[in-house]
Amino acid sequence: MTTPRLLRVLAGETPDRPPVWFMRQAGRYLPEYRALRATTPGFIEFCLDPEKAAEATLQPMRRFGFDAAIVFADILLIPRALGQDVWFEAGEGPRLGALPPVEAMRALTADAGRALSQVGETLTIVRRELEPERALIGFAGAPWTVATYMLDGEARTIGKGERAQARTWAYEQPELVDGVLDVLVEATAHYLKMQAESGAQVLKIFESWAEGLPDDLFERLVLRPHQKLVARVRELGVTLPLIGFPRGSAALAERYASACDVQAVALDTACPLEVGRRVQAIKPIQGALDPLLLRAGGAALDRRVDQLTEAWGRGPWIFNLGHGILPDVPIAHVEQVLRRLGAQ
Prior knowledge:
Elements: H1 5-10, H2 31-37, H3 43-47, H4 50-64, E1 68-70, H5 77-81, E2 86-89, E3 93-96, H6 102-106, H7 112-115, H8 117-129, E4 135-141, H9 143-152, H10 164-172, H11 174-197, E5 202-207, H12 215-235, E6 242-246, H13 252-259, E7 264-266, H14 273-280, E8 285-289, H15 291-296, H16 298-312, E9 317-321, H17 331-340
Parallel strand pairs: 1-4, 4-5, 5-6, 6-7, 7-8, 8-9
Antiparallel strand pairs: 2-3
């Protein structure tokens, strides 16, 4: 049986070309996704429909033949499993209701996997349909990133880009914030365990809001919860490789790579090539094409793909974006990257 190229890289190998997949590769830039999405009014309801979520996961695989599929879901399913109201406003994004008491949420942590069993059903369907040489990725939002939405709630319009309310509470109400993080570590570990049992071959931890944190807050809100989460996942018997994505961590990515027992570190768009090399000396890396450059296309896109390949292609590296693919990216530009890498 052929070992998926992605798994080989996560084991430390350097294959003839890097495996390729894109964050948010299932999404609005694909006409087939837009047609499928139109069949279900609510976004959460769409995520929790295993047949439709599986179809969304498989659509970019059929069109582009990426080396890995990532299950179609959302990081804010976890707050829902913990008793917090979550909904999506058209054109505005997620909204969350009042934060439940920490102890009430703590009582629900062990059931997080069962509460979101539809995601497991999606993974099972996709694994059955996916070619054996292509890897299947499960994922969850990291504790701090999910906590920012849970804590901000309706206040997200104030200092939205800096997660202002959640960061303020991290200083003013440390016991509350640390309690929420501990709850999320436990719930997320059970959620990832369920995904591993349902067919995922790789698990990714999305820390979308690691940026802008001073080093002491980074240690407390990002690094330590990741360390606890990885340890708890292993305690639950999960042996799959883990990819950590501390987006926006800049030079702290090296600290993260050294101190967190993930098997690979995903790098964001702003990570300097030299920092990427230093992280790669510690463990495999993933990243980090600018999604806006993918939108722009042309000769500049080819040059950057070549620069990344020259900088990181001699070691274990997964080609990806530095953040998610944008809804208006031309399909031809995705194909351009794949051709440049020899992946199509």
